[in-house]
Amino acid sequence: MEPRADIAVIGLAVMGQNLILNMNDHGFTVVAYNRTVSKVDEFLANEAKGTNILGAHSLQEMAGLLKKPRRVMLMVKAGQAVDDFIEQLLGVLEPGDIIIDGGNSLFEDTIRRTQYVESKGLFYIGTGVSGGEEGARRGPSIMPGGSPAAWPHVKPIFQAIAAKVTDPKTGAQEPCCDWVGEGGAGHYVKMTHNGIEYGDMQLICEAYHIMKDGLGMTPDEMHEVFKEWNEGELKSYLIEITRDILAKKDDDGTPLVDKILDTAGQKGTGKWTVISSQELGIPITLIAEAVYSRCVSALKDQRVEAAKHFPPGDPRFAGDRQQWINDIRKALYASKIISYTQGYMLMRAAAQHYGWNLNYGGIALMWRGGCIIRSVFLGEIKKAFDKNPSLENLLLDPFFKKAIKSCVRSWRKVVSTAVRKGIPVPAFSTALAFFDGFRSERLPANLLQAQRDYFGAHTYERVDRPRGEFFHTNWTGTGGRVASGSYTV
Ligand code: 6PG
Q1: Which of 92, 235, 300, 441 has its CA at 20 to 30 Å from residue 473's CA atom?
Q2: Could you identify the atom of ligand 1 that is nearest to the CA of residue 141?
Q3: Residues with Cβ within 6 A of ligand 1?
Q4: In this model, does residue 365 exceed pLDDT 70?
Q5: Quick one: average pLDDT of 169-184?
Q6: How far apart are CA 415 and CA 404, in angstroms?
Q7: For the whole prediction, is pTM greater than 0.90?
């Protein structure tokens, strides 16, 4: 057969299959391949029946069907499987061809793989693809990075199949996909997306927890609240699915959500985000709490035991329910602003560290549609970066500054009442603690530096001397005069 296919997709799990069908809908000829080859025939006979999708039963056959430069997209499990396929593909592709990894790969692996594939004369793209099954089929958010030379060859396909949103500035329909940057930039941005996704989910869960235990509301009542919230500034995919989840009944007619075991799973992208933040010294406290909250939830047996030793008091909040619902919405909104502020601080630090030229407004646009964290809120972030492309911190944008100020009373009220009543609100409260720390001109770190200098001669700077001059005090009179070097990790 003559080479007539535009792209090959390897991996026929749910994301792979749906991306192929999406590409086919947009007029591209796709070759499908899977390690267990019988899956190819199964796919062609069922989901892909009546389409232009081609099947390959070997990598050689697949390569022979592709127009040059060949574009091969891996939709396989992140990790060793990606390295194994790269090795095999290098045997059937040739210089100038493009290998694309569309899984949730660790950005450091993508940096390494880009260098490796480029050293063989081919090009590499590591791309985030978000939106789950439906996104893959109808329009995901796509965040590609890697070899810049590969982008023009992949752009028409990716931008055609991506979700579209209206650009607030131009009014044009823009694809939720654009070039992110070199090496691991695409996967870094996807990882941060997932970290923020963890944060958004945890915030929603805390709002639910307060409404359930603090206000004694039923899932049906909370369904109405989320329905209303989805009409306003919180309008987003995650609020929308929460609304629907709360209305869902089990076979016996009772709310399904109440029957679901309260232990959360995780596949690691939230953890990676926090690890990277530690490496870069950026306080993404909300995402960290969201990851740890999943870890606490997983300790089910220990929690059941501890609950016997420390039985809860009355968690009910006194006062007007509607007023509380309003306060909770504001606490959620303010915390969400903090979470995105932190996420953007992380990306800015990573860009500097890894030498990426990230377009922050462009990222907001990519996340505005198609992905799991899509929301009207991201439209506001896009506007903030459009107004000021070099905006250092989201919190200082006039829109978000005003929004935080209008929420702060409710936020404090909700956090303090939840703390008094024993309802855990780690994300709400860490967001507030970050806010209070970040807006503090003077923190108690003067004392901390004194402690470090006391026991380890770690030195300190003084408020009455220029920055960069370091001092050591012989606090006890018995220490020596030698100070330890001052360096910051
Ligand atoms: C997406 C999602 C997706 C991932 C979920 C699940 O953007 O479409 O982020 O990549 O499947 O985030 O992750 P956890 O299992 O870690 O919750």
Answers
A1: 441
A2: 7
A3: 104, 130-132, 194, 197, 265-267, 269-270, 371-372
A4: yes
A5: 93
A6: 15
A7: yes
